[in-house]
Amino acid sequence: MSRKLIVAIGGLLPAHRDAIRAAAEPEGFDVTFHKNPAEAMPDAADAEIIFGNAPELARVAPKLRWLCTPSAGYDHYAGTGVFASPEAMLSNSSGAYGVTIAEHVVMMTLELMRCQQDYSGVVERREWVRNLPVRSICGSCVAVLGTGDLGRTIARRLRGFEPARIVGVNRSGHNPGNLFDEARPIADLDDVLPGCDLLIMSLPGAPETRHILDGRRLALLPDGAIIVNVGRGTSIDEEALLIELRSGRIRAGLDVFEVEPLPQDSPLWACPNLLITPHAAGNLTLPYTVDRIVALFLEDFGRYCKGEPLKRRVDPNK
């Protein structure tokens, strides 16, 4: 009897499917491809491996041994009752999104610093105003809150803009790859914020990161500071952020929100000094990202078939 591998990811190209089949079929796997988890539901009962962001499939897959999510975040899999199989392992696709999210951060930062929203209004009114005060990453003090793959790739991209310094903030205070001019533990965040011109947040969703940037810490930022959040929306107290943005004291670019999709009646839509994108920084619209996701899965698939530990195995409760 064939082993079953379910791939529930939309947007894969024929080359991606062929690569997965070429790896899986010699190992005795029957591979089925689906556009989304709902479409794959009839096959879940016999699945040994699922490649897709599909907690709903994990709940009805008693034979599951490994679920690989194509996302970097895995907070949807935390808690009891997510996996029908007590032997199921979870891995993520950390390492696939650094390029696309780092470029999104650069885009948001430059739009905010170069007053692009204001100039868009000038152009819409057909005015010839060319003297809006702009700022530069060059010479700015940057803090990156979260120094995983995303934070490290962001630091590499920003380095070319010649900031005065880049401070990495994480749990341990360790400087990964010596990519940061300085590394500080999260316990020192209150000391970092007052000197921060640009705060970039790339934190995962977790109880300890919820509202880590609350009203008290927002007040520690200097006047004119810019916040860009591409991690999880829960890491910022949005009510407190609204107060700061409306005052004009700071600006922000948000790709993630506490409630998603962002409700149509949310005051954030019309908030001044705020640039919004609808959680678009790290999706599967960049072909490079999809290529990387498939390549990372196939790397761990080879390890799985050899009985070796998965390189990107994660604990869903951390």
Keywords summarizing the entry:
seven-stranded parallel β-sheet, 10 helices, 318 residues
Structure overview:
With 318 residues, this protein is an alpha/beta fold. Helices cover 30% and strands 17% of the residues. It contains ten helices and 13 strands. A seven-stranded parallel β-sheet has the order 8-7-6-9-10-11-12, covered by helices on one side. A six-stranded mixed β-sheet has the order 2-1-3-4-5-13. Helix 4 packs across helix 6. The radius of gyration is 22 Å and the shape is elongated. It starts with a strand and ends with a strand.
From the N-terminal CA to the C-terminal CA, the straight-line distance is: 36 Å
Low-confidence runs of at least 5 consecutive residues: none
CA-atom Rg in angstroms: 22 Å
Strand content: 15-25%
Q: Give the biggest beta sheet.
A: 7 strands, parallel
Compressed to H and E, one letter per element, the order equals: EHEHEHEEHHEHEEHEHEHEEHE
Helix content: 25-40%
Broad structural category: alpha/beta
Shape: elongated
Main sheet strand line-up: 8-7-6-9-10-11-12
> What's the number of extended β-strand segments?
13
Q: For the residues shown, what is the average pLDDT?
A: 96
Q: Count of helices?
A: 10
